[in-house]
Amino acid sequence: MTTKRTSRPLTLRDVSEASGVSEMTVSRVLRNRGDVSAATREKVLTAARTLGYVPNKIAGGLASQRVNLVAVIIPSLSNMVFPEVLGGISAELDDTGLQPVVGVTNYSPSREDAVLYDMLSWRPSGVILAGLEHSLPARAMLDNVGLPVVEIMDIDGDAIDTAVGISHRRAGAEMAAEILAAGYRRIGFIGTHMPEDHRARKRLAGFEEHLAQAGITLAAREYYQGGSSLQKGRELTERILAREPELDFLYFSNDMIGAGGLLWCLEKGYDIPGKLGLAGFNGVDLLDGLPMRLTTTDARRVDIGRRAARIVAGKEPRPENGIVALSPTFLPGDTIRKG
Amino acid sequence: MTTKRTSRPLTLRDVSEASGVSEMTVSRVLRNRGDVSAATREKVLTAARTLGYVPNKIAGGLASQRVNLVAVIIPSLSNMVFPEVLGGISAELDDTGLQPVVGVTNYSPSREDAVLYDMLSWRPSGVILAGLEHSLPARAMLDNVGLPVVEIMDIDGDAIDTAVGISHRRAGAEMAAEILAAGYRRIGFIGTHMPEDHRARKRLAGFEEHLAQAGITLAAREYYQGGSSLQKGRELTERILAREPELDFLYFSNDMIGAGGLLWCLEKGYDIPGKLGLAGFNGVDLLDGLPMRLTTTDARRVDIGRRAARIVAGKEPRPENGIVALSPTFLPGDTIRKG
DNA sequence: TGAAAGGTTGGTAACGGTAACATCATTTCG
DNA sequence: CGAAATGATGTTACCGTTACCAACCTTTCA
């Protein structure tokens, strides 16, 4: 049973009076800072617990000019990729006293500005945000904040402070190489039409460049709007194959639509990977367990989160050039012919 | 190009000096509060923009005793269900000036305590947290905070202040009713073994009670540890059917493992829904596009988020009895025989 | 024309903590 | 045994903003 509570919120002073020591000493006890005798510590803790006192970080932060928050700004929570990055961040932040605060932009630059402004107004001790492309106002805010700023996911471009991620151009190129090595030649692409998804764009660019070096151009492409789902993958796969029946490979911009395409092809009796190969992107293990494992690229999401968090937390130094490059990993799966 | 910046962070005073008015007036302009002439407003905004001033909510919050944050405490981000709830919350909070701050507990009561304590120390203007079961310290903290506290997802139990959700007992019972009505009799259950997932437990209880009323008991059950995935669904389905080949229905505790089970059964050539029926729970539309649509119950995730947010934001009054009961909706899909 | 009313601006005192330093008691050690 | 080091506690001055009230300047209208 807690004590009855007046309407006035509790402050250090209440704990101080209840335990017969100064507010300063109470503060020291509650933060485990400085020397306090075991006896007073005990008195104070008992009093605090009895009253149900919860420290006020607003006041504390103002006084100390330090806030244990890390702003994390990501485009979306509705596919599996960013929650996994978050998992990495939060795991690595766990023993640092730092706490992530998440803001979602829905891939909108103006929302990114707004979210960033809002987060900075809390004076966090670091910022982690997705991508290298930001509006002018956003860059202006970040250029001189005097905090660690880590841009994640992508390293194809210039970082404001530090970037942690993979090269999506390279991921695209490597997938192209694997596909060509496996002997496929009439290749189609299915992806989302989101001008703000720069990583998908760069992946496709790297993919096409590599094809071009082998004298090959994409035989077909199909774009869609909105979120990715199995259903979307089915529809687009049907459409692209109706239009270009001669295709022997489909490169999807993510695993979810890739899986939809795979299911559709299997139902229609396509010979996979013999006559038709399929590949996605991300390497989400949620989809393990489909009739065949989809060929894909592991985007190193958890690692990206971890490394970014380590840098913000000061567990690991910012590299000289500001770039932490992780390697996208090709996962052969079952939907590409074995070399 | 922004102006060069000294190391000292900007304050209202800087903007005040740059625009030739008092700090108080600058504050009024930036908050759109009180009367300010158009001319000064313009001057101030220009100065603020030029300097790149970002208000300090720490100081502002302390002075005004108001903070535009809503604490949202959920068990997990790694399945689709809580992100969807979050989507509902954030959509409804969008035009209120309130901002959700998310804490994740990983289904651990002690982490819930810690996260709650931490969030309360920021003096948010409301709390939304999953479930009705909380530790004693957590209840003590919440009983007298003097803020709107909304417990979500579940309404089978006592709310601290307000609860918004569905009855999982009812959801389970209704699914049992549908299954029996469709003529299935030898029913197996596959679910996660998480003592802290009270909703899954209540669902199963409601399910079994309803079966019991018809004189039927579960013919088999299979539990697993850890996250849900298609793969897990496959394995457990294989196991339970190996053990009890006579089963004619499988009730899964969520759609993801249900989908895994479905894929496995289809591969093995089971006659679905003729000889074997399957059902999951949640109604995640991510999985639309499987070879058959899994029978399931829509848990009303987005609505729950919206209603909870509306109550916290004061857009909608707290109901007399403190309970906002939404109806779980049966989604027949293709994996149960039509009545 | 002068008082009232309303719009616009500024001064001052909080808000609830913490940093930095001061103070006093106790221990350590040459 | 006295000086210096160390431990334990308190005092004071902020941190950057907003609430509240006072002051001033117009405009309105009897």
TrEMBL record, chains A, B:
> What InterPro entries does the entry give?
HTH_LacI, Lambda_DNA-bd_dom_sf, Peripla_BP/Lac1_sug-bd_dom, Peripla_BP_I
Q: Which SMART domains match?
A: HTH_LACI
- The reply on keyword DNA-binding is yes
Domain HTH lacI-type, chain residue ranges per copy: 10-64
What is the originating organism of this protein?
Answer: Paracoccus laeviglucosivorans
Identify this protein by name: Transcriptional regulator, LacI family
Q: Indicate yes or no for the key word Cell wall biogenesis/degradation.
A: no
Q: Keyword annotations for this protein? A: DNA-binding, Transcription, Transcription regulation
Coiled-coil intervals, chain numbering: none
Source organism superkingdom: Bacteria
**A molecular function GO annotation:** DNA-binding transcription factor activity
